Amino acid sequence: MPPRLALVWPTPNPAYRENRPPEEYIQPTVSGRVESGFFGCVRNNGNRFHEGLDLAPVARDRRGEAVDPVFSVTDGVVRHVNPVAGNSGYGRYVVIEHTAAVPPLLTLYAHLASIDPAVEPGRVVSRGQTIGIMGRSAGGYTIPRERAHLHFEIGFRVSDDFDDWYAWRSFRTPNRHGAHNGMNLIGINPIEFYDRYRAGAVGNFQDYLDQEGTAFTLLVRSPRVPDFVERYPSLLRDVYPDGGVGGWEIEFTWYGLPLGWRPLSQSDPRLENGPRVEILSHDRDLLTRNHCRQTLNARGRAPTIGTHTERVLQLLFGFRP
Predict the structure, then answer these.
(1) The pLDDT value given to residue 96
(2) Helix/strand/coil for 233
(3) What does 265-309 look like in DSSP terms, one character per residue?
(4) Rounded to whole angstroms, how far apart are CA atoms 166 and 163?
(5) N or C terminus: which one in the chain shows less Cβ crowding within 10 Å?
(6) How far apart are CA 56 and CA 26, in angstroms?
(7) Cα(95)–Cα(80) distance, rounded to whole angstroms?
(8) How would you label 39-67 residue by residue, b for 16+ Cβ within 10 Å and e otherwise?
(9) How much is the pLDDT for 321?
(10) Which CATH number is associated with domain 22-199?
């Protein structure tokens, strides 16, 4: 059983810790709807997914700019620093891997006004250490002064081969962020994790993941062992079969996280014939309520793989059309 994480809130705002209303710590979009700052299908009338949590400042300078420090929520190692605002929709951002946690998840801190000079890739940081100053930096769009905030994520890195996938997709802009590009990250719900942690229902990341439900299960006919599984072995549901892996049974959350991995032996009869990916089961109501994530298209008579899941499978298994 993993030990309890020593955890802090990523900003100095005491409102969450004091169990005050979310209006006192969440920064909404221009809509003014507080839910727009949370995780999930919360934007554009439920049609756009938001991967993290937008946290409002409590301190501003004479010009009205946010000046709150931003803290590493627990001990970790800096994996990526983007110091150039225009190089990402995240603006200036930092990614920290919490190597002692189980699983060793990442936290991401975005739209920073500045990054502490001591925060460099490979540096060890401590719980509560200041890594930067909250701001409104962004590439390709403008965050107005009054909506400066910290965009905060907790999640997984999907693939170490992200650069190869990015080159194959022939995007117009270069990948300046290696494997820590936002397209290669899948987040969990930060506020739900913190709520359960504060209530004593979970003590660490694995506790939280053990409580997550399965929205759909796929059968994947591939002998490849993705680096994702090697990086997060606590997600394995069974031991590797003798003689090697022939395929996988993978459980996904509604937001598309491949949460449970069951390796199948090469002699498993289900692997003999069929497409390389098969939908074994799904929760139609749950997926329909959260359709903006495009994990499975579950509205019709027969579900089909959505664009988000297709991208994740490409990254995990190297699939190409």
Answers:
(1) 98
(2) helix
(3) ETT-GGGSSS-SEEEEEE-HHHHHHTGGG-SEE-SSSS-EE-HHH
(4) 5
(5) C
(6) 5
(7) 5
(8) bbbbbeeeeebbbbbbbbbbeeeeeebbe
(9) 83
(10) 2.70.70.10
In the prediction, which pLDDT does 301 show?
Answer: 82
In sequence order, which ranges of the chain are alpha helices (DSSP H)?
Answer: 162-169, 190-199, 205-211, 227-231, 284-289, 307-317
Cα 112 to Cα 73: distance, rounded to the nearest angstrom = 16
Name the token pair of 210.
Answer: 């053990």
As given in the structure block, the two tokens for residue 171 are 């995007």
Task: Give how far Cα 61 sits from Cα of 57, 64, 65, 134, 135, Å.
Answer: 11, 5, 6, 12, 12
- Domain positions in the chain: 22-199, 213-317
pLDDT of the residue at 235:
98
Question: At how many degrees (to 10) do helices 162-169 and 307-317 cross?
Answer: 130
How far apart (Å, rounded) are the C-alpha atoms in residues 141 and 118? 28
* Nearest-angstrom CA–CA distance, 62 and 183: 36
The token duo for 28 is 């909404």
Per-residue model confidence (pLDDT) at position 1:
78
Which residues in the chain land under pLDDT 50? none
Cα four-point dihedral sign 6, 10, 14, 16: negative
| CA–CA separation, 67 and 59 (whole Å) | 6
Q: Which two tokens stand for residue 2?
A: 């993993």
